[in-house]
Amino acid sequence: MAIPETILHELTQPYTLTGEQVDFYNTNRFIKLKQVLSPEAVAYFSTVISEQVARMNTVKTTIGERDTYGKAFLQLFNLWRENDAVCALIFSKRLGKIAADLMQVEGVRMYHDQALFKEGGGGITPWHADQYYWPLETDKTITAWIPLQETPLEMGPLEFSAGSHQIIEGRELAIGDESEQLIQQRLRVTDFKHVIEAFDLGEISFHSGWVFHRAGANTTGHMRRVMTIIYMDRDMRLKAPENKNQQNDWDTWCPGAQIGKIINSPINPVLYEPA
Length: 275
What we know:
Layout: H1 5-10, H2 19-28, E1 30-33, H3 39-56, H4 68-72, E2 74-77, H5 84-90, H6 93-103, E3 108-118, E4 125-128, E5 141-147, E6 158-161, H7 177-188, E7 194-196, E8 204-208, E9 213-215, E10 224-233, H8 244-253, E11 270-272
Antiparallel strand pairs: 1-8, 2-3, 3-10, 3-11, 4-9, 5-8, 5-10, 6-7, 6-9
């Protein structure tokens, strides 16, 4: 399916952030931005990404046969390497500039992309912080969470604990039943606001690697289709892994990178920097 010229043009156009929005992100380490993508772009990428997920998905078990993590979503990685249309979205200057502007860095590069499709009847996504998995030297990381449809509360939109990047406790937990229980207990005794909101069509959220977040169950009969892009500072350096998951991420998403050096492998291209 050829990408319509109007959508290609849209992906090159800057989305202007206000100073207040940048300040909000830096305080809370997440932000939701409306009308980042047009309804036409969302509909187009919903189709092409859904088709690519169907081609790549190897999960054959029913939801009831899976553990909590498996019930949370179907998870496919680096679709940009498999599909030129998906690549156009992932390499979008529009989205990359938002990521760079929010983190206040000169440019951003790819960590990896990830489709997260929560099936109808799919379970919760437990509380967690993404950067537990990442062997990255600084916290200059950000994930674009791109719903491919309107996402009401019944579908399990992303939820945030605003400002919870300040909490160290819980960072050592992989996503699962334990992280859901222990992080939830910790957050209950803090003043961090738990933000649970629907996503409008074309609305995208951006969150940092250490902010705690989760998603509810999808209680509808429809797939909750989401594409994500994980960005890191263009000058991000690899750190020595602190757990087996970080070692696995080094091997998988930063092949050939060296500890203490900028992560500049063939699958970690720069996605945005000023011309």
